[in-house]
Amino acid sequence: MKFAVTGGAGFIGSHLIKYLIDEGHNVTAIDNLNTGKLNNLSKVIDRINFIRGDIRDTKLLQENLRGVDGVFHEAALASVQESFTKIQEYNEVNVQGTENILKTAKEYGFKVVYASSSSVYGNPTKIPIQEDDPKNPINPYAQTKLDDEKLAAKYAKEGVRVIGLRYFNVFGERQSQQYAGVIKKFLKKARNGEAPIINGDGTQTRDFVYVGDVVRANVLAMMSNVDHAFFNVGTATTITVNELADLIVGEFGLDIKPVHGPGLPGDVHTTKADITLAKKLLNWEPRVEIRDWLKQAISEKGNLDSIID
Ligand SMILES: NC(=O)c1ccc[n+]([C@@H]2O[C@H](COP(=O)([O-])OP(=O)(O)OC[C@H]3O[C@@H](n4cnc5c(N)ncnc54)[C@H](O)[C@@H]3O)[C@@H](O)[C@H]2O)c1
């Protein structure tokens, strides 16, 4: 089949493209290389159609999305902290950019599976979080993701097939600084024999989901007969930031204690996904567990390079 991946040179987009190519699909990647890197696509670049372009450019989208069966829309500005100072740009890329994809989908008839975020829930009212729980974004980035969901619902009413996947904290090889950046930072410190620096008291919990599992969720959503829905994409398990730091320090065999700094503004304290809906409608389940993966990555030092660098 013929697919396009926006944000294809980014962390999740590049893993998705590798999977699609290995499955024999035809892939166009659209990325302005803002945070993405061509290097992320080095294994597949000869086999894809790479377009260096911006999702704010409607003409470029119309030219390159004609005839595709589906678009995986991953492109976004994705830093919570940066979103406080660049509200307008975040709106233009994340909200206007998503509307451009949806408008093109309406015109050409392709299906859209796009990256929403668990941040739409804000600080949850109950754990685990279910899809229809209240949405209370607590930072401008999360607000753009909620605005996207409103657009998706609106376009779905107009006949567009669109699924939003609310990723929790995605980790894995080549991961970006956002969301699961804490893993990257702790590994970097521990590799240098230094203590991890924890923002706040470290009791905050995270639901870390492996990028390969996120890729499978995308493909299953695209191939499913579900036309419109939002799904949690997490693991329904959690780890505290303190436990994460202890695990990493321990696996490196270091005898040091983490250092605690001030908490971050806009940081959610507790997250944990209920993934019943994705299991039921998409037949999706995560396969990789953060603790097992980290232990293996630390024992195979070569694998660590692709996470940290
Ligand atoms: N990584 C996570 O844990 C996580 C969690 C929740 C949601 N998400 C969402 O998943 C998606 C992918 O995230 P990621 O972690 O791979 O981040 P990333 O920064 O690695 O990827 C985003 C990609 O979008 C590209 N991009 C940015 N602005 C663009 C524009 N105007 N036009 C074209 N391309 C543009 C960037 O260059 C980059 O390659 C994003 O929508 C993000 O908000 C990620």
Class based on secondary structure composition and strand pairing: alpha/beta
The CATH architecture designation of the largest domain is 3-Layer(aba) Sandwich
Low-confidence stretches: none
Number of domains: 2
Question: How does this structure look, described?
Answer:
The structure is a single chain. It is built from 11 helices and 13 strands. The radius of gyration is 19 Å and the shape is globular. Strands 3-2-1-4-5-6-11 form a 7-stranded parallel sheet, sandwiched between helices. It has a two-stranded parallel sheet with strand order 7-10. Strand 1 (2-6), helix 1 and strand 2 (26-31) form a beta-alpha-beta unit. The two termini are 33 Å apart. By secondary structure, it is an alpha/beta fold. It folds into 2 domains: 2-169 and 209-233, Rossmann fold (3-Layer(aba) Sandwich); 175-207 and 237-272 and 288-308, Alpha-Beta Complex (UDP-galactose 4-epimerase, domain 1). Helix content is 40%, strand content 17%. Helix 2 packs parallel to helix 4, helix 4 (87-108) runs parallel beside helix 5 (140-157) and helix 8 packs parallel to helix 10. Bound molecules: nicotinamide-adenine-dinucleotide. Residues 6-7, 9-13, 30-36, 54-56, 74-78, 93, 97, 115, 117, 167, 169-170, 176, 178-180 line the site of nicotinamide-adenine-dinucleotide.
Can you lay out the helices and strands and say which pair or pack?
Elements: E1 2-6, H1 11-22, E2 26-31, E3 49-52, H2 58-65, E4 70-73, H3 80-83, H4 87-108, E5 111-117, H5 140-157, E6 162-167, E7 169-171, H6 181-191, E8 197-199, E9 205-206, E10 208-210, H7 211-223, E11 228-233, E12 239-240, H8 241-251, E13 259-261, H9 276-282, H10 290-299, H11 301-308
Parallel strand pairs: 1-2, 1-4, 2-3, 4-5, 5-6, 6-11, 7-10, 8-13
Antiparallel strand pairs: 9-12
Helix pairs in contact: 1-7, 2-4, 4-5, 6-8, 8-10
The chain binds nicotinamide-adenine-dinucleotide.
